[in-house]
Amino acid sequence: MAPKKSPKTHSPKEAKPPSSGSKKAAGGDAGAGTGAKYSAFTWLAVLALLGVWSSVAVVYFDIVDYDSVIARAQEFRSNFSQVLQGKLRAYDADGDGDFDAEDAKVLLGLKEKTSRGRGRGQPPEDGPAELARAQEPAEERSAYRRAARPPGEESAEERPVASTAENSPAMSEAEDADSEIQAAVPLPAFVEDDFVAVSARCLSGEDADAVDTSGVLVEEASSQETVVESAKDLTSSKWTREDGPSAEAEAEPRSEPVEAQSETAGESGGPPAVDSAKDDVTNSKSTQDEEAAKRTAADETKGKAKKKKAKLLNASDKSIKAELDAAEKLRKKGKVEAALRAFETLVQRHPESPRAHYGKAQAEDDLAEKQRSNDMLQKAIGSYGDAAELPDATPDLVRAALKRRAERQQFLGRMRGAVATLERLVQVFPEDVGLKNDLGVAYLLLGDNKGAKKVYEEVLAVAPGDGFAKVHYGFILKSENKIAESIPFLKEGLESGEPGTDDGRFYFHLGDALQRVGDQSAYRWYQLGHERGHFASVWQRSLYNVDGLKAQPWWTPNETGYTELVKALEKNWKTIRDEALAVMDRNTGQFVPEEENLREKGEWGQYTLWQQGKKSATSCQAAPKTCSLLERFPEATGCKRGQIKLSAMRPGTHVWPHTGPTNCRLRMHLGLVVPKRGCRIRCTDQTREWEEGKVLIFDDSFEHEVWQDADTLRLIFIVDVWHPQLTAYQRQTLSAI
Asked: Within a 10 A sphere around the Cβ of 561, how many other Cβ atoms?
């Protein structure tokens, strides 16, 4: 029985008996007649109507100021977000200054943690590197410098940021881009630019995010690894990528080297060595990985023990610390213009304050990046020097200012100034081996191999186990053609695993040196280089590549899509031959000897008509019909990463196994004068012979080798073309090599 309703809590109306519609109420006793009259649905309907009319009343009579409510909510959200980010910033794993989804992935183990700072061996990041840098003329670049930075980056002195016009570099007709990576051959002395360090205050520097002063090859996004079979398409592994932003590496099964299928491949010391070294590769890599892990753990422990905050304030700077901190806070918040004004004011009020000058330099540096202004960057370079030269500057500030100054000067292509800066640093900090190593790299970038060699000899005298110095010293010895002497330094340097040593060029040169002394372990090092992401495969070892391009050693005309060019060459081969022979008859000296250290023996001369997409008017005057024919085919004449040239090879010539610098081109060989026997070319494990009037097409980013064992001259016409899968945009924007 339902309890009686209290009259204190229910009105008389609520006490009336329920309607006959409720059987339960109707069938109850008298006491039950005091139950609820209305159903739950009725009350819900009443409440809903009350809510609607209340809302109408609020809006109609403007009872609530919604604008102020929304503004306060937004302010609360903003403040709360800032507070939350401030507390979660400790969990910032990718170094971008806040906690976001990417950091969460790292904490959950879904993504590798990225380093906040860049060590000596890390690749450069985007940022200041976006400032325009010009492809330097060939006579102003060392072989090390060409390999150390991505091709086509232009010196600020050669092209303003806003300018799109390019100065035509001086063309050496004998210069073969094949060897820009393979052979470290010093070039003529660097021609000093218009910026000269006139005093210690004019020391120089650059951005570590823009130019890697360790000389480490730029490492970009990985893609699928190569299946090294000549009959299959080959795609790149983790190698230098130039077609867009980097992506995360995808794990793929490692490729297996191809077994030898020809006697020629065997005699070249090629494929057999790869398979026979598989176990050694695995064991060596496992051992190196274990050693690297131990070194990493030791370095982390050592780093934690030594880690301390740099002391940038001297005694007088501490009196204006609040003002310095306020200006620095603006800079770190990205308010660069305001920060620069604040530091400029401090410099005016306290001209002897090193920290104020250093802050001004940093603000100018940041503003140069923001505005993409080389002029502003030049101001920053001067300000870094001013800060370092003040009498009461702390050692930490001097080091930081001069290192940054040297980096920024290198970024602008002012190599001599950068060398002067680093020399000054070494004078101030003579016990710092790392600074000496950086100085050695600066000499190499300048093209002064002798200066670099002297520096590394000094480093190895006091630190004989320094892997960075060893690998660079070995690089220099090989550039001097001291092949056998270079091998132990390159090998021990790579085995050290020190920052700055895991570089594709060092694997390349070690393997090349081993090949030249007949050591079959060369392919083991190529395999390691491939597994570490420097080469697309054991065979395809170019270092400047566009990801995803079809990769195979030999091509047919139909596969390239350049059938009209092939037909034109084969149809007019006699005309091309006659002009080539006429050039040789008039002045054989016009065929410039190959000087890139690719020959084991013999004579090999070249006569260049186009190079890096630029026509040699002088050369074409001697071969007008040939040049007129080629001008119909922009895939050849516009190939900025190739050449069009005549190649004459005398009997008894052997060209070492080598690879071209890029996968962005294919190479056509048209036979002009070909002896019946004794001339052959190997690309990977396949060997072919030329025929007069016929075109051979291969991808010279794969290892190839040439023999001329005939009794008479061999003369061919070489035509490089863009890889057919490159888009029109890529062909237009890719830098020249």
From this structure: 12
| pLDDT, tens digit (0-9, with 9 covering 90-100), for 330-382 | 999 999 999 999 999 999 999 999 999 999 999 999 999 999 999 999 999 99
**Residue 501 Rama label (left phi>0; alpha psi -120 to 50; beta):** alpha
CA angle 712, 715, 719 (to 5 degrees): 165
Give Cβ neighbours of residue 279 (< 8 Å, ≥ 6 apart). Answer: none
Q: Which two tokens stand for residue 8?
A: 């204190």
More confident position, 1 or 672: 672
Q: Six-digit token pair at 16? A: 């009336």
For 698, the enclosing helix (H) or strand (E) is strand 695-698
What amino acid occupies position 429? F
Per DSSP, what are the bridge partners of residue 692? 671
Residues in the chain: 737
Per-residue b/e over 408-418, b at no fewer than 16 CB within 10 Å? bbbbbbbbbbb
Instruction: State how far the Cα of 661 lies from the Cα of 226, in Å rounded to an integer.
Output: 17
Q: Which two tokens stand for residue 134?
A: 């010009």
SS3 554: strand
Which residues, in sequence order, are CB contacts of 567 under 8 Å at separation 6+?
A: none
CA distance 511 to 521: 8
Q: Are 530 and 226 in contact (CB under 8 A)?
A: yes
Cα–Cα distance, 533 to 517 (Å, whole number): 26
Q: Which two tokens stand for residue 594?
A: 């190959």
Q: Which two tokens stand for residue 607?
A: 């006569």
* pLDDT tens-digit readout, 136-190: 333 334 556 555 443 333 343 333 333 333 333 334 433 443 433 333 333 333 3
Distances (CA, A) of 202 to 211, 212, 385, 387: 20, 22, 6, 11
Q: What gap in Å lies between CA 530 and CA 538, rounded to an integer?
A: 6
The token pair that represents 4 in the structure block: 């009686």
In the prediction, which pLDDT does 338 show?
96
Distance CA 498, CA 494 (A): 8
Q: What is the pLDDT of residue 222?
A: 35
Query: Among 377, 287, 387, which residue's Cα sits nearest to residue 347?
Result: 387
DSSP-based three-state secondary structure for 519:
coil
pTM of the model: 0.62
Do β-strands 604-611 and 643-649 pair in parallel, antiparallel, or remain unpaired? antiparallel
